[in-house]
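Quick start: what a row looks like.
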Amino acid sequence: MDLDNLAQISKRDLEIIQLHQFQQPIYCCNVTAIAYAFTALGYLTTVDEIFYVTQLPIASVLDDGMTLAETYDTCRTYLERKGLPLSIRIVHFDQPSMTLEAFIREVEAAVSDETDIHILNFNTRIAHENPSLEGGHFSLLADYDPDSQEVTIADTNPKRYTRFWKCSIQLIYDACVDKDSSSNRSRGMIVLRRQEKANLAANKVLHTSEIALNALHSE
């Protein structure tokens, strides 16, 4: 679906979207994060649609969960089969170049750029400093305060972790550096970026990504 068609989508349909509706009664924060990311970029997407379009086996999500690389492959397959004008890249935090300083620069640029979305894969025990939590999780970067050096995370499971929560950028970085035992690699992030930008400002039309984000963040 192109951006011109997206502009015709009913505003009411987007306004009723709530983040908790993405989360299925199964452990699929990875697929939920993909659906949330595409919707935030202006392409209304559901968890069920991702399973349908990619033919992703449910067992691959339920058994040991999905690694960052597997989530990337699913995300790439979906955007390619849907023909969406988006680029995608994956960054494992065991890459020597992904230092804390490099991550801070990435985050600072991300929060001021409406054309991209960052899906973070991190260890919840580290990020929340709570040893009783499960471990690996996927959610979206929402904001960063350079004064307090805190990031805001838009969580894919608000009933458990709340819709938005904050932690220091050092903690979320450490949580992304954490090694996923399933892949024997560090966790990290997936970055989606719009390759085209709708020329709607001149017509005073609110871009659908803004509508979607406003609706998702309304509570």
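That is the whole record. DSSP finds eleven helices and eight strands in the chain. Residues 68-82 form the longest helix (15 residues).
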